[in-house]
Design brief:
Shape: globular
Largest sheet: 6 strands, antiparallel
Order of helices and strands: HEHEEEHEEHH
Distance between the termini: 27 Å
CATH topology: Aspartate Aminotransferase, domain 1
CATH architecture: Alpha-Beta Complex
Radius of gyration: 14 Å
Number of domains: 1
Length: 124
Amino acid sequence: MNIEDFRAYCLSFAGVREKMPFGKATSDYDRNILVFYVEDKWFCFVNIDRFDFCNVKCGEERGEELRARYEGIRPGYHMNKRYWISVHFESDVPEETIRDLVRESYERVVAGLPKRAREALAAL
């Protein structure tokens, strides 16, 4: 998987947009963070230059299970460690699992949106 394939996958979900909100950050790493969101809620972000890992939303119990199973899954970098995980690309986490985790993160965020927003997304 490369950044373009990953980006295309994230943008394939209904209503997803992308932005790079940290243009004024002091570090190059932070300036190059690409965020994927639906409505105004983030569900995934990744550094476009390094493409070393992505952060996705995850339930607390699921996150614990995944961290126990894979060395490449760690508590979410710079995020609430209870609800976010970092998934490292060059690790023991299969590409299929990474895609599943991104989809689950998107679905988790959509499930938390108001009914009207969920219905609008379903119509897309």
